[in-house]
Amino acid sequence: MRNREAVVFLFDIDNTLLDNDRVTADLRQHLLDAFGPENEARYWKIFEELRAELGYADYLGALQRYRTRDFNNPHLLQMSSFLLNYPFMDRLYPGALAALEFVRQWGTTVILSDGDVVFQPHKVQRSGLWNAVEGRVLIYIHKEQMLDDVQKRYPAQHYVMIDDKLRILHAMKQQLGKRLTTVFPRQGHYALDPENIATYPAADIAIERIGNMLHYDLAAYLGKQQ
Question: Distance between CA atoms of 167 and 75, rounded to whole angstroms?
Fold first, then answer.
């Protein structure tokens, strides 16, 4: 148990600090070039099936399931190599590391993400985000359901959650109430989906890009903006 902090900043990864839409587009192109349209479509079909079952994206899990249906394909090793060697640091949004450094003056920064137990931590490490938050990384299956554990690990008077999904921000706000300030970067396909925007309440703070976090002061992040 840590000493209670005044404020803890919780950062999502995909399409919040890192342009995961571009990662996915690069993977799609690689699959088309290396394996052809039929196998590319097959992989994404399996990927979506697995995401529906698990509740999060599992790129390597989809590849493993692909293998069980096509275990004689020697090119699968090339597909896994592309994922594991991908230059995730090059896909950080401009200002992502600066945002982490900026809010560190006021409190602790923590990565809070959904994902599998192998590839998601690998992505955090390869992108440089692991070192940027000094190893304060939490990865769950459904992070919005794990706030009790988050609070035990990083006790605070106030929390700030930065996430591109209004659904997640709303679910967390319902649990923590005024102890949570929600920040919504309008980045990625979830954040730009009109249906998502219309379905959930607006966040406390909305920004066009993660680098715009530098434009707000501590009072705003504590929910005291005028």
Answer: 38
Using alpha carbons, select from 149, 84, 155, 152 the residue that is nearest to residue 121: 84
Say if residue 215 is in the same domain as residue 168.
yes
Q: CA 185 → CA 18, 96, 115, 128, distances in Å? A: 12, 11, 20, 20
Q: What is the pTM of this model?
A: 0.91
Domain count for the chain: 2
Q: Do residues 136 and 198 share a domain?
A: yes
Comparing C-alpha atoms, which of 3, 37, 213 is closest to residue 108?
3
**What are phi and psi for residue 33, nearest 5 degrees?**
-70, -40
Cα 110 to Cα 6, 107, 175, 221, distances in angstroms: 14, 10, 19, 15
Q: Picking from 3-17, 74-88, 182-196, which range would have the lowest pLDDT averaged per residue? A: 74-88
- Write the DSSP assignment of 96-119 as a string of letters: HHHHHHHHTTTSEEEEEEE--SSH
pLDDT, residue 159, reads: 97
Share of the chain above pLDDT 70, in %: 93
CATH number, domain of 73, equals: 1.10.286.50
Give the per-residue pLDDT at 18.
97
CA distance between the termini of the chain = 35
User: Per-residue pLDDT for 38 more than 90?
Assistant: no
What tokens does 145 get?
Answer: 């359901």
The residue range of the domain holding 55 is 21-88
Residue 1: the pLDDT is 39
For the chain, state the CA radius of gyration.
18
